[in-house]
Design brief:
The chain is α/β, with parallel strands linked by helices. 50% of the residues lie in helices and 15% in strands. A six-stranded parallel beta sheet has the order 2-1-3-4-5-6, sandwiched between helices. The model has no long low-confidence stretch (mean pLDDT 87).
Length: 206
């Protein structure tokens, strides 16, 4: 147990799970929730208002995905540490979490005692990575796509057509089509839809 109260923010869109997590953590005398939200785009405003020490964030949230929110939170309120919860141990997702400078990354089905320890370790300035996730990242190949290619594929996965992507990124239509062709080749995919599936399953795109 720490010598001070650790102020927590929880972002989880499933109400029952959010309540269960809060109930478990509030059994600890040194842990106290100052805010809870159900959307990713509510995280930063709530954190700026309540100034938590640790934000516990589900990776899959409406409005804004958890990793994007965590990166924005790190930018706006660097003193707040972030602990990501995920139901899937995808190595690509863990790499994205590390790039977003999150402080911890654990599976949702971790024992309560491990979650409590993770919160305390993160609050103390440590970094926590679930051992199972770390091993899967070590054993898996990395994302073969460049940052720009990943961005374009992410937009395609969200339903944007090449014209929309070109306009949003200030690129020519031909350049975007060339990027999409390169992406399919690099990933040994059958087509763009297959490339999106492969990248999603690997955790390279949300």
């Amino acid at each position: 147990m720490t010598d001070r109260t650790i102020k927590l923010l929880l972002a989880e869109d499933v109400r029952m799970l959010r309540g269960a997590l809060m109930a478990v953590l509030e059994l600890e005398d040194d842990l106290d929730f100052v805010a809870d939200v159900e959307r990713g785009d509510e995280i930063v405003p709530a954190a700026l208002s309540h100034r938590p020490d640790v934000a516990i964030i589900d990776i899959d949230l409406p409005g804004m995905d958890g990793l994007t929110a965590a990166a924005l939170l790190h930018e706006k309120l660097p003193a707040c540490r972030t602990l990501i919860l995920t139901a899937f141990g995808r190595p690509g997702t863990l790499r994205r979490a590390m790039e977003a400078q999150v402080s911890g990354f654990i599976l949702k089905d971790a024992p309560p005692a491990r979650l409590v320890k993770a919160v305390r370790d993160v609050a103390a300035g440590g970094r926590v990575i679930d051992p199972q996730l770390a091993m899967s990242m070590w054993e898996s190949p990395g994302n073969p796509l460049s940052r720009r290619e990943t961005e374009i594929l992410r937009m395609a996965a969200r339903g944007c057509d090449p014209g929309d992507i070109a306009a949003a990124l200030h690129l020519s239509l031909g350049t975007v089509r060339n990027y999409l062709t390169t992406i399919v080749i690099k990933m040994n995919a059958r087509n763009r839809v297959d490339a999106i599936r492969i990248a999603s399953e690997a955790g390279w795109i949300p």
